[in-house]
């Protein structure tokens, strides 16, 4: 039999809410760049639509490349027992947060 899920403890935990706020802000920023990027580059910088389309697609490209590279690294670390699953997840989170911060 499974232990009951402590929903009240989860929903009142500040670390859960800070994680939610951080993720929401990250996704908000990404989608703002994706939807308003072409307009910004066209009207503020005066670039043509081909250049703006390429630049607006860069966040998608980097997210895809990051997911591929880190999934390969994570599989290696797990498969060789160099890190636990929990530590691989922590490493991915820390690396991603450092990457988007800089």
Automatic annotation (TrEMBL):
It comes from the Eukaryota. Keywords: Membrane, Transmembrane, Transmembrane helix. One of its GO terms (molecular function) is transmembrane transporter activity. It is found in: Membrane. GO terms for biological process: monoatomic anion transport. It is a multi-pass membrane protein. GO terms for cellular component: membrane. The chain crosses the membrane at residues 20-41. PANTHER family: NA[+]-DEPENDENT INORGANIC PHOSPHATE COTRANSPORTER, ISOFORM A, SOLUTE CARRIER FAMILY 17. This is Uncharacterized protein.
